[in-house]
């Protein structure tokens, strides 16, 4: 019988072998010519907003260093490195991973884009102290901690690698939204052997999925579709992973607190507010009186569909780390899309509708919103936008209209801020 340490080492080896056999997510370097894969965490505009109070952590005489711990086939690394290159930042993004097959794909994607600000390192985040990489202004750990034998120890290792004033972007699986996943994982463990050839295990998993009864929880969960539409790498990662766990909102708070981290935001924040799901006035009021961690926990229970948690966090206190529209010099930035296009859509429909995976939100705005939206270009400050309005609108009226727009669009992570 193996000791617990040897068991962990054996499972570590299986995790590494999985990503050698099935690099995840599946990506083709030639696709870089037609699109940039973006997401959360690690979008540059998010890092600036949620960790640096809107102030860019790079500039003349200031080099920015980022670590992507468990970089996989490179989505986070390529996105951040490209955005930093486009911004003209003096920066280095370190891709750290234990699987060489995944790193080869990430390297090929970087070459396809001509990116020269990425450094590739073979290794585990658990060995960071011995790798001599120095401190980082930002660390990305997306979809990695929940595959470690000791996620808390892994997060503590990342915190030790943070430089002064730095921050972290994390993604871990959500328990409720993944209902059914672990039932099928356990069923497949009973039906096959862990050391069976990977292709045979994938074949068996597909056979089981085709044969699941209608009562099965995974079959009844409409929010998890990797096994329906994904490739073999996605199916293997979902149902045949050697080590995999999920977290509730209270467990995410506890994980971060145990490493000395304070969460600055969940992404998207609106999904973690009970008022997004409730309509009864008394229930909304009672929920609104709860502290933020309890509100977020309640929202997860109400939704039932949050299958991953994305958070930004900082060492110590989160006070003053998130940008706020509290100065005329703050510059509103759309994370994606075009302000004029949003303004036209709002003027035509009278409201804006957003689809957040399994949640549809629709917002109405006041009469000034289209004019404000049409002038948000990532360069104009609030003062500039106010001055450019064709209507004779005083600052207080303008600011109230912008604050309403900001509260709703920031809640879906669409509207962010940058300090001029």
Structure, explained:
- With 420 residues, this protein is an alpha/beta fold.
- It is 42% helix and 18% strand.
- The chain has 18 helices and 11 strands.
- The strands form 3 sheets. Strands 3-2-1-4-5-7-6 form a 7-stranded mixed beta sheet, sandwiched between helices. Strands 8-11 form a two-stranded antiparallel sheet.
- β9 and β10 form a beta hairpin.
- The longest helix is centred in the first third of the chain and has 18 residues, at 4-21.
- The radius of gyration is 22 Å and the shape is globular.
- The N and C termini lie far apart (62 Å).
- The mean pLDDT is 95.
Based on secondary structure, the structural category is alpha/beta
Estimate percent helicity.
Answer: 40-55%
Overall mean pLDDT: 95
Q: Termini distance?
A: 62 Å
Major sheet size, sense and barrel closure? 7 strands, mixed
Ranges where pLDDT stays below 50 over 5 or more residues in a row are none
The neighbouring-strand order within the major sheet is: 3-2-1-4-5-7-6
What's the total helix number? 18
Strand content: 15-25%
Shape descriptor reads: globular
Q: How large, in whole angstroms, is the Cα Rg?
A: 22 Å
Secondary structure tally: strands: 11
Give the H and E element order. HHEHEHEHEHEHHHHHHEHHEEHEEHHHE
